[in-house]
């Protein structure tokens, strides 16, 4: 799904909105993309204006996050980040077990 990723696209708004809504820092969001295991998927339901994707993963401090993002050029732009819900945690735990 993601061939080359050169980094992340951040601005003050998308850095701060995830902190304000869900206490997720932009650094935590970035960590999820580099830690294993992670589950990525295409978010077809919300891909009206641009292709959106989701990722389930953990931060360096083992916080379990669900992140919605898009890819612009070779940069990841995080749209939203929040703690995983119960169903997502079960799916992620199964992935960890199968690892």
Query: How many structural domains?
Result: 1
> What do the pLDDT scores average to?
91
> How many β-strand stretches?
5
Number of helices: 3
Order of helices and strands: EHHEEEEH
Which shape, going by the Cα principal axes? globular
Cα Rg: 13 Å
Widest beta sheet: strand line-up: 1-5-4-3-2
The percent range for strand residues is 25-35%
Q: How would you characterize this protein structure?
A:
It is a single chain. With 99 residues, the chain is an alpha+beta fold. It has one domain (7-98). The chain contains three helices and five strands, in the order βααββββα. It has a five-stranded mixed beta sheet with strand order 1-5-4-3-2. β4 (64-72) and β5 form a beta hairpin. The chain is globular, with a radius of gyration of 13 Å. 17% of the residues are buried. The model has no long low-confidence stretch (mean pLDDT 91).
Helices and strands, with pairings:
Blueprint: E1 7-8, H1 12-22, H2 26-34, E2 39-42, E3 53-58, E4 64-72, E5 75-83, H3 86-98
Parallel strand pairs: 1-5
Antiparallel strand pairs: 2-3, 3-4, 4-5
